[in-house]
Every structure is written in structure tokens, then in C-alpha cells.
């Protein structure tokens, strides 16, 4: 079991009953419905600070203020393919009063709702490219051997008008051409 949260109204009620001096801490605890330790803690807090609300908790101060966060968010929205590392380098170069790591930027963007995704690959041939290829092929449909090869200077020296290449690059796990994009 954890601690039960006691509202400020109940705490002020406990302080009022303690000031009345008609009841003991145990009787007040039973009357209000809290533990005797809770009544004792509220009494000590009220005597030392004059308040019953919880004090602000200590912790590490935030590194980035609202303007810094807005700048980072704007930059990543301008260029979604920018890496966390490059964004951190850019930010640190622009604002030299403190340094921000790529992990801080990553946490900030995740908090804002942006996550990393693999970008959609562009098709190798668009509809326009396919139409151009089809037209090129239909224009050369009835070409003869001499149309494909023409002579220049000397009939023994044959120079081709069209060069075909059968070289292709195939990679099974091509991870270098993958683009990471930040989006909602």
C-alpha cells in the first residue's frame, strides 16, 4: 500500500481541530479518516512553514526553455530527414551557452509526438518515364541492323549510335539508401 493523497481542505480541517485543543491527535485521525502519523506530519509542517500544502519538489532544472524547444521543433519540421546528431550539432553551434545531446533532442521530439520512420521509397520508373520509354521503343521498332550501326570514315570501323549496358547493381540488404524521416 502506498500513501493516500490528503486534500488541502482536509489538512486545514486537521489544523483547525489541532488549534481547538479539545481532541488528541489519535481522535482527530479517527474523526477525519487519516493515520495518526499524517496528523503529526501536518502539525509539524504547519508549525514550521505556516502552510499545509506540499512544497515544490527538487530536481534537475530543465535544460531547454520553450523557445529552444520551438526552434528544434521548427527545424525538424522544415527538414524531416535531419538526423538527431546533425540537429544537435546545429543547435549547439547556434546557441553556445550550453550543449544539448542527441538523446535530449530525441526525447523532446518524442514528447512532441514526432517519431522516426523509414521514408517511402521513390519508384524507379514513374508513369512519365514509362511513356517516354514506350515512345522510344515504338520509334525504333522497324530499324534495321544498319540503322543501329552507322559507318564513319571507314566501312571497317563501325560506330554504334545506341549503347546498351547490362550492368545492374543488386544489393540484398541495402540499408545505406534508406532514409529516416521524422513525422507524427
Automatic annotation (TrEMBL):
In its UniProt record, a GO molecular function of this protein is: DNA binding
* Any one Pfam family match given in the protein's UniProt record, by short name: HTH_Tnp_Tc3_2
Domain Transposase Tc1-like: start-end pairs:
70-142
BP-aspect Gene Ontology terms:
DNA integration; DNA transposition
InterPro entries, per database record: Homeodomain-like_sf, RNaseH_sf, Transposase_Tc1-like, WH-like_DNA-bd_sf
Q: What is the recorded name of this protein?
A: Transposase Tc1-like domain-containing protein
**Species in which this protein is naturally found:** Brachionus calyciflorus
* Lineage of source species: Eukaryota, Metazoa, Spiralia, Gnathifera, Rotifera
